[in-house]
Amino acid sequence: MRKMNVKDIAEESWLSPKGKFGGASKEISVALGRKPSSMDLKERHPFDVEICRIPPGKIHSPYHSHSAQWEFYHVISGAGQVRHQEGTTSIEVGDAFLFEPDQPHQLINNGSTDLVLYVVADNPIGESAYYPDTKKWLVRSPERRVIRPNGAEELDYYDGEE
Question: Which residues contact 112 (CB under 8 A, 6 or more apart)?
Fold first, then answer.
């Protein structure tokens, strides 16, 4: 059995260059021994679990969809919105929701307190992501690169998003 306590996991935070996107996470699966870059499924684990914290006024990430990844969310505290292909939906404590591959989504904290969620993802090998607002792709194989469909240049992750 592998065991850890969330209080013992360091929180890793991020902020985009202009401050529109930001948040922090505690990588539970990594603390339990998950090796995200391993090709060995016993080291990689069949799913990834994290606690994600989005501060008031921040957006978790640019609007995107995954080519093969499923993502499950459960709101622990706070409130906010989820942008999805049908519009936006308010979320609050206790709400759980799921995005399957090719369903674009974005988490927004439009509240006055931190929005905190459990996130469970299957992180399949060879996964890529598409950003409908800026028509770019995040390609993770063979190395992580952000590109536009014409492939003319490699881009910064936040290019055109802020």
Answer: 56
- Any idea where the domains of the chain sit in the sequence? 6-125
Query: Which residue has better confidence, 74 or 154?
Result: 74
Tracing tokens 């499923």 back to the chain, one arrives at 70
- pLDDT above 80 (res 101): yes
Instruction: Please give the class, per CATH, of domain 6-125.
Output: mainly beta
- C-beta contacts of 83-90 below 8 A and 24+ residues apart: 83/108
Residue spans of alpha helices (H) in 8-138? 28-31, 41-44
Of 76-90, 108-122, 132-146, the range with the lowest mean pLDDT is 132-146
Reduced to 3 states (helix: H, G, I; strand: E, B; else coil), residue 98 is strand
pTM of the predicted protein model = 0.90
As a dihedral over the C-alpha atoms of residue 71, residue 137, residue 13, residue 80, rounded to 10 degrees, the angle is -50
Q: According to the model, what pLDDT value does residue 125 have? A: 81
